[in-house]
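Notes on consecutive records. When two proteins share a document, each keeps its own sequence and its own token line. Never mix them. Below: protein one.
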Amino acid sequence: MAVSSERRDFELVERAYDRSGQVCAEYAKTFYLGTLLMTSERRRAIWAIYVWCRRTDELVDGPNASHITPTALDRWEARLEDLFQGRPFDMLDAALSDTVTKFPVDIQPFKDMIEGMRMDLKKSRYKNFDELYLYCYYVAGTVGLMSVPVMGIAPESQASTESARRGRIYLPQDELAQAGLSDDDIFAGKLTDKWRNFMKNQIRRARMFFNEAEKGVTELSAASRWPVWASLLLYRQILDEIEANDYDNFTKRAYVSKATKLAFLPIAYARSFVRIEV
């Protein structure tokens, strides 16, 4: 009996979601753990979004980054538009193409992320935190807006060292100068008291943003709060690990152990029932 085209399409999409989950598990272990706490449909949708974001980032940070041009990013954006119109280019695109039919996902945050990749091609330094904040929106904040429709809320309501190896410094230039640090200090990777003091200020600000994020978690649908709380607590724990490493981002990678991740799950579960008054 011949296999219908509908059946073939279904099997392709199922394989695409499975592969997306494998990629997420391999490259984003903490994030993947959070997705396992979601409902099956939401989990698969988040995997599909993650894989698209990873592939987009790889355009400028992957092994072929030196060959990427603005024209290549234009082609990637055209491919994104096709994907949203139900014309996926390959198997992994098929997972996201299916996701956007099941959830009211907006294309604009995806386009904005591509704009962030264009910024990577044009500049490698950011004068101050305001400039860096805009860049962070394009390459990271957009992920939240992509995920919002999946998580059930309306949109209204060591990385530094790895980047330095590519000649990019995602740190505010004015704050580096105030700390008495230069680009050469970053590239040299030498741990000094100046660097420690600089990192203390960066961590202080990061914790402030994590605290602000807590308020938003309570606005999510009940089914989504646990995994998001788990992710928030575990990613915030990375700041503690940086401190435990004596602020050495150059030779030590800050990560959260598997035992710690498991220990935080019941804490996140309990938090998911608490509503924070804003």
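Protein two starts on the next line and is unrelated to protein one.
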Amino acid sequence: MYPPPSHRPTNPVPGYHSVTAYKIPMDQADAIVKTCSYHMNDFDRAVIWFPSGTHSGAAPVPLVSRECLSPLGDLDKLPLELIQCICLQLDMLSLFHLRQTSSRARQVINALHEYKVTATHALDAFCALLWTRSASRVTVSEFYKLLCTANCSICRGQYGNLVFLPTWIRCCSRCLWYNAPQLRVASVTYVKRTLELSKKSLANLPTVTLLPLPAIYPMEKRPSATIVSTYSAALEYVAKNSGSTSIEEALDKLFDSSHIRYMACCALPTYDPQSLQVEYGVSCAGCQLALECDIITGELGADVRDMVYSREGFLKHFIWCEKAQLLWTESVNGAVEPKSMPAVCKEGSHLLWRGKRRG
């Protein structure tokens, strides 16, 4: 049976949690994930995202076969392995600029495994760093390392489908929605005025520059704004006061804006260096069905519907999700589309589905 059996939920909901754990044959796991889960595109569109064609300057496009006439200068005197080690320690902005200098530089960087993985699977996050002027704070090695993680760094237990740009940590939509202290942001001007931080203290804080971006809530036409993690600012404030003020007291002095908080994040997939597989996070179609059937309602219903899982996490959820099991049964082991599959799950978007209904 796959995955290993887990205990039944402490407070099972009749009609939502199955009475017994579903036994998943190993050879059906992939089909179950494909049939009973879906990727919610709304989560990607609620944060920084870019339309296709934006990434042309960063994508690892193969060079046309030709002699590389532009050398790397003194770097070319070093062994290729050493050059690549140096590139790994470059920040993303420096790497981006180096790659533009010559065809030889592009050849070396395009051959770098960590860059290829990053530029192939996480171009939105790469472009978000460049666009928000925060690429100089994240090295190639740090980017790749975060790409190879899966769980939210705040709640630990859930799949982290997003990256919080100011501090470059993986987080989940749930922590962002519930206003986790580590994900709050405010303008640098406001933080400086409220906490009375010195220029030196401000210089230590990770900042992100917000520019008009394609999103569900486009920014008004106004100059760019520079924001900072209020959690980082609070830590700096505590240090300035030699620990006489707690982090909670410092945070209480600051307010943040929820829509700006979303614009400080970007979707980030997970890359498994062992299996070479990439995951983008999935939601449960069975939970959406349970919500539409009024089996789960209110905050609980919205909470479980909006949960994002890794492949492994979804399978662990599936063994107790009665409606997901129903969809699997209706699919005849993945052979046909389940008749009860919610329209939202087919579209992968609540907004798109509602728009079609209005039309």
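For the record: DSSP finds 20 helices and ten strands in the chain.
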